[in-house]
Amino acid sequence: MGKGVAIGLGIGLLNGLVCHGSLVWAMDKTDQVFYWVWAAGFGYRLLFFGLTFWLLAKTAVLPVAPTMLGLVAGQFVVGVIPLKRGKAQKH
Fold first, then answer.
1. Cβ neighbourhood burial of 39 (10 Å; 0-12, 13-18, 19+)
2. According to the model, what pLDDT value does residue 82 have?
3. Is 40 in contact with 65 (CB distance < 8 Å)?
4. Global pTM?
5. How many Cα atoms are found within 13 Å in the side-chain-facing hemisphere of 68?
6. Given this model, what pLDDT does residue 85 score?
């Protein structure tokens, strides 16, 4: 059980950093680009969760519930990091 949580958490953190990095990149772009990146990241995470759940249920390599909880927790930890505008806009 602990192994599933740890693996899920690690993958969730990595996945969350990729999505967060894409939003940071899009922050100084036009609104249209930013929202496209946000929507693509949202769809990617949903697809990733679904495929991970399916793979875990199909193969039974790791327990499904603890691994998915770790995955969600990892994504959440990265998701609460605030986005900051770059040098283009100063307050």
1. exposed
2. 77
3. no
4. 0.74
5. 16
6. 66
